[in-house]
Amino acid sequence: MKKKFIKRNFQKLLLEKEQNRVVSTDIIKTVGIISTDEISNWIDIKTAVEDHFKVHNTKIYSYRPYSRKEEVSFKHFSEKDFNWKGQVSQPNFKVFIEQPFDLLIGFFNKRNLYVENAVLRSNAKFKVGISNVNQDLYDMEIAVLPKNTNQFLEELKKYLLILKKVEN
To answer: Is the pLDDT of residue 16 over 90?
Structure first.
């Protein structure tokens, strides 16, 4: 039932944000990453991004399904961290979502209402993700699989150089 309400609010917010979207031209200094625990466990995307773009203090949050057995983590979020309207209710995750990152990377390749909702609600100025998930979420998509992290980052850097969002 909760998922149905969140989905409805997600669609409404998606249309609203799409109509009011303004793409930033700022140079990238801060980076946020939203991923899934499944991907984060076998790829260290945070370190790869920091090395590739020479940025520090990159922040990452990964989605993992809620389990009573799991301890609360400041690096993970679950469906329990959203209220019935799809708004983030967990304070630390809310701070992450509200942070105006210069670049937000949606590093996941499967549809997931909660992960997509997090990307949509993010106050990031420029959003990039893996294609074939939900093109309405991003300012730019890159067509690679998550296991090809270096290829993803090389393509991203190439386009960010063209857009003059990073320096060579």
So the answer is: no
Q: What pLDDT digit, counting tens, does each position of 71-122 carry?
A: 878 899 999 999 988 899 999 999 999 999 999 999 999 999 999 999 999 9
Contacts of residue 87, Cβ cutoff 8 Å, sequence gap at least 6: 121
| Identity of the residue numbered 86 | G
The helix or strand, by DSSP H or E, that contains position 159, with its residue range, turns out to be: helix 149-162
Are 62 and 36 a contacting pair, CB within 8 Å? yes
pLDDT at 118: 97
Q: How far apart are CA 129 and CA 112, in angstroms?
A: 14
Tokens of 45: 């995307």
Is the whole model's pTM more than 0.70, yes or no? yes
Beta pairing partners, 88: 82
Least Cα distance to 118 among 94, 139, 101, 152 occurs for 94
Q: Residue 128, SS3?
A: strand
Dihedral angle sign, alpha carbons of residues 24, 28, 30, 35: positive
H, E, C per residue of 50-107:
HHHHCCCCCEEEEECCCCCCCCCCCCEECHHHECCCCCECCHHHHHHHHCCCCEEEEE
Strand partners, 3: none
Read off the tokens for 66: 């809620």
